[in-house]
Structures are given as structure tokens and as C-alpha cells.
Automatic annotation (TrEMBL):
Pfam families for the chain: PIN_3
Lineage, opening ranks: Bacteria, Candidatus Collieribacteriota
Ranges where the PIN domain occurs: 3-104
Protein name: PIN domain-containing protein
Domain of life of the organism encoding this protein: Bacteria
Length: 120
């Protein structure tokens, strides 16, 4: 069993567009950033309460967004603070895998000990 972190694009796919992805994650511990929930709700203009979303996010461990993550994110590794928050959140959660569709992040290959890939 691996500890898998979902970048926002994969999180949105799992809960909104391609729920079949969730089957491929079965047996793994899955983490997300609270930013992913915010970005999803903002992008799709979701108004609370969102009962379906509330039940869906219980499938994931939400990594606390803290000062340490924010501070490190303002330093890199990319020039996009949101991407950096996602990456540093994965490290904070001791994840083995960072799952993303972001080509720029995929080019990194690894961030610390976290392997960056586009599918399991």
C-alpha cells in the first residue's frame, strides 16, 4: 500500500469527471490539500452545503495547511505557489507518490522522496 497524494486536477477528476480513477486507488492511503477542495468549489461555482462533496472528501486524508508549508512554498521548487503548496503538502503527509496531470510537475520526476507520476 502506497501513500498517494492527489494534485488538484486528479482530485477533480476523481470526484467530478472520472470516478473510475478511485478504483485504481483502492488499497492506497490517499491525501489531498484543502486547496483542492477550494479550487474545485470555486471552479465549479459550488455553493455550500454540498452533501455529495462532503461524503466524497471523507475518502481522503486532508493535509493540514500550516505556516511551515506556506513558508516553504514561497521559496519553490516552482514559480507557482499553488503547485508548491501541493508538493510540500505531499512531503508533509509522507507520501510516496504525487499523482498529477500537470506536465510541468511531471518533468520534475521527484520532489524529495515523492515520485511524481500521472497514473498508478
Amino acid at each position: 500500500m502506497a501513500r498517494v497524494f492527489l494534485d488538484t486536477n486528479i482530485f477533480i477528476d476523481v470526484i467530478h469527471r472520472k470516478p473510475e480513477i478511485l478504483a485504481s486507488l483502492e488499497g492506497h492511503s490517499i491525501s489531498i490539500s484543502p486547496l483542492s477542495v477550494h479550487i474545485y468549489c470555486y471552479s465549479f461555482k459550488k455553493k455550500v452545503p454540498v452533501t455529495r462533496l462532503q461524503s466524497q472528501i471523507r475518502l481522503f486524508e486532508i493535509v493540514d495547511l500550516n505556516t511551515k508549508i506556506v513558508d516553504k512554498s514561497t521559496e519553490g521548487p516552482t514559480n507557482d505557489v499553488e503547485d508548491n503548496i501541493q508538493l510540500h503538502s505531499a512531503v508533509e503527509a509522507n507520501c510516496d507518490i504525487f499523482l498529477t496531470g500537470d506536465k510541468k510537475l511531471l518533468k520534475l520526476g521527484y520532489f524529495g522522496k515523492v515520485k511524481i507520476i500521472d497514473h498508478l
